[in-house]
Specification:
Layout: E1 4-10, H1 18-26, E2 31-37, H2 42-51, H3 63-71, E3 79-83, H4 89-98, E4 102-105, H5 113-126, E5 130-132, H6 140-150, E6 157-165, H7 178-181, H8 186-189, H9 194-210, E7 214-222, E8 233-240, E9 245-251, E10 261-267, E11 270-275, E12 278-286, E13 292-295, H10 303-307, H11 319-334, H12 345-363, E14 369-370
Parallel strand pairs: 1-2, 1-3, 3-4, 4-5, 6-9
Antiparallel strand pairs: 6-10, 7-8, 7-14, 8-9, 10-11, 11-12, 12-13
The structure holds 1,4-dihydronicotinamide adenine dinucleotide.
């Protein structure tokens, strides 16, 4: 099968997420890094792209130059990844969709609900895929949990409890470090800090595994370090359309917790739990029975979990290969296959609506607030 041409915007040298995209996109031979505008500094971006093997005429200084250059080519890129800081996602994603490119956008997809709705409409009008990098949903054992819920193996889901709480911004003496400070500054980060940064991964995961949408939220936000305007800790209760109860805690001041993302799903006939720091295992307990540890790579897992695992049982694959699974599904969808499991613009929009609803709820002392995007009500 011919490789697809792939372009990347942001994710330059030293960036946090750039390497995971490059490892992920190229892990399975589906994509070739053909074009890039990697850095806010045009010269650095061009030089770094060329060091990664991008031809000089496709190592662009900025995304507008890349849009014009790629639109004019017959061998134009099939997919562009947007891995720039949050406030730029909307403009870049919209422009590439309108020009007919498929897009994988980093989360959060947009800064507002209105922008999110605009991206959903733009992708639909253009007939292009707009995926959002909720990459944790692509771990094989998360797919296993989703398949078990779909198959009714734990019955109707009563309750979801999820945490995405780390302690890496818990040192008050480091709060003015520019790399930390912007995340809690509304001018840079928007209406929400920690919830928009990490909490939305957990909320997406809950919807993804349960197969249901968040309908309303009741939130308590706190800035535990006094100089912060936006929240560094949040507790968000939610209800899903079918009545499933949700509890979500997200924090950046939970010193001692490292990555800190885990999820528990409790149904009428069983419970399951998964944690990103032990991504190869799902703990499954049938009602009245013993807890079983299900292991990535063992026989009898669902086809999705088997398909998205490359190495033998007990060998870790880890975060970049979860991102790779997003690219596996993207390549299939671009080639005309199913997009089942791919997080799409609709999911990015739902996240933003939940962020705004949680902010409003927190300001109203936790009042229950509709979290559905207006276009889906
Ligand atoms: P970073 O600050 O480490 O890197 C950003 C990169 O984008 C830098 O190379 C910078 O030079 C470049 N850049 C900035 N403006 C640009 C522009 N206009 N054109 C081209 N390049 C530009 O940021 P980080 O942590 O890598 O985050 C980037 C995005 O990825 C954010 O939206 C963040 O929320 C998301 N992210 C997602 C994760 C996930 O699990 N899905 C994990 C970490 C980050």
């Amino acid at each position: 099968m011919m490789k697809l041409n792939w372009g990347m915007i942001g994710g330059g040298e030293g960036s946090q997420i750039g390497p995971a995209h490059r490892l992920g996109a190229q892990a399975d031979g589906n994509f070739n890094l053909a074009a890039a505008a990697l850095d806010a500094d045009p010269a650095k971006g061009r030089a770094y792209a060329q060091s990664l093997g991008v031809p000089a005429d496709r190592a662009y200084g900025d995304w507008r130059e890349m849009l014009a250059g790629e639109t004019a080519r017959e061998d134009r890129i099939d997919l562009v990844t947007v891995a720039t800081p949050n406030a730029t996602h909307y403009e870049i994603t919209k422009a590439f969709l309108e020009a007919g490119f498929h897009v994988l956008c980093e989360k959060p997809m947009t800064m507002t609900v209105e922008q999110g709705e605009d991206i959903v409409r733009t992708a639909r009008a253009a007939g292009r895929i707009c995926a959002v990098n909720y990459c944790y949903s692509a771990y094989p054992m998360v797919r296993q949990m989703r398949a078990m819920v779909r198959a009714g193996e734990i019955g109707k889901v009563r309750l979801v409890v999820t945490n995405f709480s780390h302690g890496h911004h818990g040192d008050a003496t480091d709060a003015d470090n520019p790399r930390v400070r912007w995340r809690y500054d509304p001018a840079m980060a928007g209406v929400s800090g920690q919830f928009a940064d990490c909490g939305i991964h957990a909320l997406h995961m809950a919807s993804f595994i349960v197969g249901d949408e968040v309908e309303k939220v009741s939130a308590d936000f706190a800035s535990t370090i006094a100089s912060r305007v936006l929240e560094d800790d949040a507790m968000v209760n939610f209800r899903m359309a079918s009545g499933t109860v949700g509890r979500l805690w997200t924090s950046s001041v939970a010193i001692g917790r490292q990555h800190g993302f885990d999820i528990q799903i409790f149904g009428e006939t069983g419970g399951m739990r998964w944690a990103s720091e032990q991504p190869n295992q799902v703990y499954y307990t049938p009602v009245g029975g013993r807890t079983q540890i299900m292991e990535k790579g063992e026989s009898g897992l669902c086809s999705d979990a088997a398909r998205l695992s490359r190495v033998a049982i007990a060998h870790p694959e880890g975060f970049p290969l979860a991102v790779a699974n997003i690219y596996v599904d993207l390549a299939a969808a671009i080639r005309g296959g199913s997009s089942d499991g791919l997080p799409l613009a609709e999911d990015g929009l739902r996240s933003m609506a939940a962020v705004y609803a949680s902010v409003a709820s927190a300001k109203a002392d936790g009042a229950w607030t509709d979290a559905r995007p207006p276009m889906f009500r």
